[in-house]
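name: query_chain
kind: protein
chains: 1
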Amino acid sequence: MSASVPAQGPPVQVPQVQGVPDTAQLLAVERYKYILQQIHTLNENVYKFLAIYQTLATAIVGAGISVFLGHDKWDVGPEVARGALKGLLWLETFVAGFTMLLVVIGVLSWLDYRREECELLDELVRPGFRKQPRIAAAYRWYETYVVLFIGGSTVFLWVYTTNLLLPAIK
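structure:
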């Protein structure tokens, strides 16, 4: 994760909580700022991972199309062309798997930070001030659809290539 950047501006006025020293409250507020920053960073990372996947997948698919269309002109035999397409499929699958792994790890980290946020707010504000995240709400998370898109596009590439492109190479 990226390092925490201290917030600029006037000092934060922290309400006095009975029985908690001022220093502890200030530290709790700083911890809360850090947690929120980490949640924000994790949210941004998904878009970065998706952009990297789309760039690499586009390059790999472009290479596959080039092999398919140009193997005759390049005097590349059909077996070599099929092998190149299969290799590119495996490369795309590896990139997709790694990207999905990064997204899932980001979600798990996000869940940890959200739980920590809720526990901190339970202490500072009141119990139940913010609800704990629920896995059942995954249908509302954009990360779910990013992973489904990456997985679906990879499955499509395998089906399309094995059923249409590979048999067409003669």
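note: The longest helix spans residues 22-70.
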